[in-house]
Design a protein that fits this description.
3 helices, alpha+beta, 18% helix, six-stranded antiparallel sheet, single chain, globular
């Protein structure tokens, strides 16, 4: 399970943070996400209960992910992700297309990760912060 917190940063604040020493030595990672659905839109897919289907390319690694978002009783968004690394993206794409899925959205990101412990976190939990620029969000 993953706990994720997101903060919207200005371009200036992003640059200030990546120049911080805690990010020294970390190289940017580039990610490309392609989302697929059987429906005409993400909104319809969600109302029909369909998990988001994503193919992610991150350098030489490729992943197939099913993402299910729900809102709990307290009004907090909960995300469940089932993910596996795959070797043949063209085969996965063919399987999806043959089963009625179509690409509907692409997203490209650049991120840098650094270890960061700004709050009290138990020692057995690895915490980090990831700065990310989404090119087409």
């Amino acid at each position: 399970m993953e706990l994720e917190a997101k903060v919207l940063l200005s371009p200036e604040k992003y640059i200030e943070l990546i120049l911080n020493d805690s990010f020294f030595g970390n190289r940017p990672r580039f990610k490309k996400d392609e989302y697929y659905t059987k429906y005409n839109s993400e909104t319809i897919a969600k109302t029909q209960g369909e998990s988001l289907t994503r193919i992610r390319t991150e350098g030489p690694k490729k992943y197939l992910t099913l993402k299910k978002k729900t809102v709990n009783e307290e009004g907090c968004e909960e995300n469940v992700e089932i993910e596996t690394q795959v070797s043949d993206i063209s085969a996965i794409t063919s399987l999806l297309m043959e089963n009625g899925y179509r690409p509907y959205y692409e997203k490209e990101k650049q991120s840098i990760t650094a270890i960061c412990l700004p709050v009290s976190i138990p020692e057995d939990i690895k915490a980090n912060i990831e700065l990310e620029i989404v090119k087409n969000d």
